[in-house]
Amino acid sequence: MQKNTQEFKTNFETVCAILEKHEFNPHMLVPILQEVQAAYSYLPEDVMNYVANALKITPGTVFGVATFYSHFALESKGKYIIRVCNGTACHVRKAVEIIKVFQTELGLDDKKHTSDDNLFTLEEVACIGACGLAPVITINDDVYGAMTKEKTIELINKYKEEAVNA
After folding, report:
1. Regions of the chain where pLDDT drops below 70
2. Which CATH code for domain 2-68?
3. Using omega within 30 degrees of 0 as the cis cutoff, is the peptide bond preceding 59 cis?
4. CA–CA distance, 102 with 14 (Å, rounded to integer)
5. What is the per-residue pLDDT across 55-75, written as a single tens digit (0 to 9) for each?
6. Beta pairing class for 142-144 and 137-139
7. What residue spans define the domains of the chain?
8. Which residues contact residue 31 at a Cβ distance below 8 angstroms, ignoring those fewer than 6 apart?
9. What is the pTM of this model?
């Protein structure tokens, strides 16, 4: 039993450090989950269960908080997070076509949001706040406006090349 506990702790060393930093305080669940997500880029189920156990709260409580706040991700995300605005201005200017190009070029669909190579995650958002640039997308912190099918394919190729050369 001791060996398994030690292996479990070793595998969750980062999580343990985060929990210790917050003194295993269940009232600090949101900041704990934020730091865990920063470390893993999402909230793996086994890590959420570990956090629940360590904080002596139910897994349902942890999962409830993780699903309530849109900031938290329950699935692994790619290196490049693509957000396509589909708000009114962007929708009218054919944002759906841009979404379809990303899906086709990256092998994604309405249920599969991350490419097989874990480079790209596609998210549709209600508003980016750059209506004058419609249709607009962001890739990580970079904003691209007046998107077309051709510009979309160029961006995909640019980021693929960047990933290869990194």
Report:
1. 1-11
2. 1.10.10
3. no
4. 34
5. 999 999 999 999 998 789 998
6. antiparallel
7. 2-68, 80-165
8. 22
9. 0.71
Rounded distance between C-alpha atoms, residue 140 and residue 150, angstroms = 20
144 contacts 90 by C-beta, under 8 angstroms: no
Contacts of 154 (CB under 8 A, 6+ apart): none
CATH 3.40.640.10 fits 80-165, yes or no: no
CA separation for the pair 120, 49 (Å, rounded) = 27
Q: What distance in Å separates the CA atoms of residue 156 and residue 98, rounded to the nearest whole number? A: 12
What integer pLDDT is reported at residue 9 of this predicted model?
46
Q: What does the alpha-carbon distance between residue 118 and residue 113 come to, in Å, rounded to a whole number?
A: 10
How far is the C-alpha of 52 from the C-alpha of 166, rounded, in Å? 37
80-165 shares the fold of 2-68: no
Amino acid identity, position 20: E
